[in-house]
Design goal:
Layout (H helix, E strand, L loop, with lengths): L1 H36 L3 H12 L6 H14 L2 H14 L4 H14 L2 H15 L2 H13 L3 H15 L5 H12 L3 H14 L4 H10 L15 H4 L35
Helix pairs in contact: 1-2, 2-3, 3-4, 3-5, 4-5, 5-6, 6-7, 7-8, 8-9, 9-10, 10-11
Length: 258
């Protein structure tokens, strides 16, 4: 009888403690999300840290914790959290972008290159090659940047101006005018109505006549079928459909693909 009297209050106390713990956990999540939305990064990080002590597998919250640390300038902590999330949800573009920025800010250049190269080689998308090129530019690594931008041009098969605009800027900064203009001509062929192209034509001081635009070699897989695609800046393609199908095996990216 006495044993029963002792056990029942103990069970009730355990249930009460579990309920309180669950309530606290939910409270940390709510407070963390509110602080995160209000860009109150230290408060968000504090609540997310407490929440994750009992919910370690919640990669959404861990991603937010990493982003909070990134915005706080706590770059090593941001790298740690975002690296865990990247392992949990590989291929997530937002997570990869955040991790790349955290690695860059933390000065972990070797790991940054490993990450970006592996993503680009595996996905073979324009966006991933462009990201590698952009970070290489930030790090002053001209050779890697050029290779990455050329790879981006190759995988997008002449369907996006972004690699050619990047190569124009790259060669112009190096004083290589002929190469810069060549890539600008490619960009003009891909999208003759682009404001980016028009701005750089003006910057380069060239005449955008009917013979300026030039088909890039990468477009040869499908463009021969639509000979009317080429034209001067401001002209419309004569025969090509608005969105001809990509060559087999080419994956569209978010930046320049239809």
């Amino acid at each position: 009888m006495h044993t029963r009297a002792i056990i029942l209050p103990t069970i009730a106390l355990a249930a009460l403690l579990a309920s309180c713990k669950s309530t606290n956990t939910a409270g940390y999540l709510i407070d963390g999300d509110l602080a995160y939305t209000a860009t109150q990064w230290p408060k968000a990080a504090d609540n997310y840290e407490k929440y994750l002590t009992t919910r370690e597998g919640d990669h959404r919250v861990r991603e937010r914790l990493g982003n909070a640390y990134l915005n706080m300038g706590e770059y090593p902590k941001a790298v740690h959290e975002l690296r865990l999330v990247h392992t949990q949800v590989p291929g997530n573009v937002k997570v990869t972008n955040a991790l790349a920025e955290a690695l860059f800010k933390a000065g972990k250049n070797d790991e940054l290159y490993r990450l970006l190269r592996s993503e680009a080689v595996e996905s073979q998308t324009e966006a991933d090659w462009m990201r590698l090129g952009d970070y290489a530019i930030k790090l002053g690594d001209k050779d890697t940047a050029q290779t990455a931008y050329r790879s981006a041009a190759k995988v997008c098969a002449g369907r996006s101006i972004d690699p050619y605009i990047a190569l124009f800027d790259y060669h112009r900064d190096l004083g290589q005018r002929e190469e810069a203009i060549r890539n600008l001509r490619y960009a003009a062929w891909v999208d003759p109505n682009s404001s980016k192209v028009a701005e750089r034509i003006k910057l380069a001081g060239v005449i955008d006549g009917p013979t300026f635009a030039q088909m890039p070699a990468e477009a040869g897989n499908w463009a021969d079928k639509y000979a009317g695609q080429a034209g001067s800046v401001g002209s419309e393609p004569a025969e090509a459909p608005a969105n001809p199908a990509l060559p087999q095996g080419v994956k569209p990216s978010g930046k320049g693909a239809p």
